[in-house]
Amino acid sequence: MSGAREEILARMRRALEGAGEAPVPPREYRRALDAGVDITAMLIDRLVDYKANVHHGLASIPAALAGAKRVVVPADLPAEWRLGGAEFVADEGLSTADLDGMDAVLTGCAAAVAVSGTIMLDTGAAQGRRAITLVPDHHVVVVRAEQIVGHLAEALPMLDRTAPQTWISGPSATSDIELQRVEGVHGPRRLKVVLL
Amino acid sequence: MSTDARIVPAASLIPADAPFPKAAKVALGMPQLRKNLAHATGTIRAKRANVAGELDDWERLRDTASAIKADVQHRLPELAIEFERNATAAGATVHWARDAQEANEIAARIVREAGADEVVKVKSMATQEIELNEHFEAHGLKAFETDLAELIVQLAEDKPSHILVPAIHYNRTQIRDIFTQSMGDAPSGLTDEPAALAEAARLHLRRRFLSAKVAVSGANFAVAETGSLVVVESEGNGRMCLTMPETLISIVGLEKLLPRFGDLEVFMQLLPRSSTGERMNPYTSVWTGSREGDGPRDVHVILLDNGRTGVLADEVGRQALSCIRCSACLNVCPVYERTGGHAYGHVYPGPIGAILAPQLEPGRHDDLPYASSLCGACYEVCPVKINIPEVLVHLRQQGPHEAGEKAAMGAAKAVMARPRLWRAALKAARFGSMPWRRKGFLRRLPWPGSRWTVSRDLPVPPKEDFRDWWKERQR
C-alpha cells in the first residue's frame, strides 16, 4: 500500500530530473464582462437557450411550481417563499423514497453566472443537501439580483469551496444520440428560475 | 416500425489487435459507420466553433491552461502530496495504484468491504483504461454503466469508439434497436426519437440509482489546494452516483491535478465549449472528502499511475498528460472521422490516442503515430494547446524502423547529398513515370514502391524541374 505511494513518488521525481523550473502561467484572460453589459438579460437569454423557464418576482413562485402538490424545501427556506397551495415539506433527513414521492423542490442558490447561464449551489443558506435538488423531477430555484454575476471568475469566490457543490446549467440533458442536445434524463427534467 | 435487425457490435468486426492500417481498412468498408461518424462529428465541429468564437479571450485561455498543465507536470509530486493531505483531512481515504491491476484490486476490495456485489458507474476514461468492469466481472462483481452512451455500448456488448460519446458510431435507429433487444424493460413501441430513448434510459436506471450502495467514478479535475474532485456531466447520472450511495470510489489519473480551486475558472470555460460545444455542461459536481448528512459517508480516491510517470519522463511527450479528455481533436481529425475509434485498438483513439497510447504502453501501438496526416487541425482546437503533430513526429522518430525503410532513407540521403546524382535521379524518375504522365498521380507502384502507394497516391514527377525551368527563363 504505502509501497505504491513511495514508488510512484520516486518514479515522478526520477522522471522530472533535469526538467527545470515550472513555468509561471500567464493570467491575461478576462475575469469580468465589459462594463455596461446587462447581466440579468444575458442570464435570461442563456437559461431560455437551455430550455429552463424564467419567472419574475416572489409572486411568480406558485406559477413556477405549476401545480406541484408536495414540494420539498430546505429547512431554512425563507417563510415568505412558501407561496401557493402546495404542501411544503421541510427536509429533515427525508428518506430517498420520500424524496422520490415529491413533485418538486424549491431552493435558493449561492450564485448565478450570466455568460454561461449557470446556477451554483453549495449547500449553503436556503439550498439544502444535494439529494433534494436531484431526486424530484422539477426544480424551482430562486435567484436574488445580487447573486447574479457576469463571469465565472466572479462567481467562484462566492462559493464555499470545500462544501459539496452542484453547478447547474439548464435541466438534465444528453448529447449522446447523434451529438444533439436532448433535455431530460436522470436529473430534474424541469428547471424553473425565479428572479428576485 | 422496428427493423428487428440484430445490431452487430462494431468492435466485433474491427480487429482491435490488428495494426492500424488493417483495422482502418475494415472500418472504411462499413458505410453506415462512416455515415454516422460524419454526421456526428460534423454537428459537434460546428457547435464547438460557435461557442469558442463567443469568447474574445479564447487564445489567452488556451495559453493559460497550457501553462497551468505544464506547471502541474513540473510539480506533480508536491501537488499529489498536497491533494492527499487535504482530501484526507476532509475525510477521504486516498490510495495509490502503480498500475491497472493494483487499482482494480483496491476498488474491488472496497466494494466487498461495503457489503456490496454491484456498483453504479459514472462515465470514466480511467476505469476503461484499467478495464475495471472486466476485472469486476471476473471477480464476481457487477458494474452498471449509467451514462447514456456507455449504457448503449454496454447493452450492445460493444466497445467505446469515442472519448466523450462512446456510442458515436450508432445512429438513433440503431440505438432504439439495441434498447429493444437488450434492455429487458424497454417500453413497448419505443420510437427512435432521442427524447423517447432518453426517457427509456431514465426508467431503466432509476431504481438502481436510488438503491445503489457503491458508486465508481473518475474525475475531470483534482484540486490540490482543497483536496476536491470535480466531475463534469450532462444527464444527472453523475450526480446520482456521487450523491445517493453510501460509498464512493473515484479513480483519478495523476495528471488530473490542478494547483488551485481558482484554476477551474480557466478549465471550466474551455472544457464544455471544446467537448459538447456548450457554454456550460448541465451539471458539474465538486466534492471534498465526505460531509455529514450529505452524500456518501465512505469516500475513496485512488490515484493512478499506470504508465503516466513514464510519459512524464519524456520531455517532448509529456505534454500528452495535459489532455483534459474533451475529444475536440477526434472531432476535427480527418483520419478519425473516417475510421472511427475502434480501429485505433486503444481506449484513447484519435489524435490524442495516437500520442498517448504508445507512451502509456511502450512498445505497443507503435503504428498509431502514423495514423495521421500531420495536418495540425488537432493542435488548433486543443483547449490546452497540446502540440500533437510535434509529439507524433517525435514518436515516429523514436519508434522502430524496418531495415528496408532504413536502407531506402540511407540511399535517398546519399543521392540528395550529391547534386549531380540527384539531378540524374530526377531525370530517371521523370522517364520512368512516363506511362502515368497523363493520369496526374501514381496510384499503384510495383514493390517496394507499393508500400507507399497502398495507402497514398504519389504525384507524377513534372516534365521539367525547377532548375531547368529557371535556366530556360534566364536565357
TrEMBL record, chain A:
PANTHER family: LACTATE UTILIZATION PROTEIN C. InterPro entries: FTHF_cligase-like_sf, LUD_dom, NagB/RpiA_transferase-like. It comes from the Bacteria. Residues 100-196 form the LUD domain. This is LUD domain-containing protein.
From TrEMBL, chain B:
Keywords: 4Fe-4S, Electron transport, Iron, Iron-sulfur, Metal-binding, Repeat, Transport. Residues 320-386 form the 4Fe-4S ferredoxin-type domain. Gene3D superfamilies: Alpha-helical ferredoxin (1.10.1060.10), NagB/RpiA/CoA transferase-like (3.40.50.10420). Residues 82-304 form the LUD domain. InterPro entries: 4Fe4S_Fe-S-bd, FTHF_cligase-like_sf, Helical_ferredxn, LUD_dom, LutB/LldF, LutB_C, NagB/RpiA_transferase-like. The keyword Iron applies. Residues 397-474 form the Lactate utilization protein B C-terminal domain. Coiled coil: none annotated. The keyword Transport applies. This is Lactate utilization protein. It comes from Glycomyces niveus.
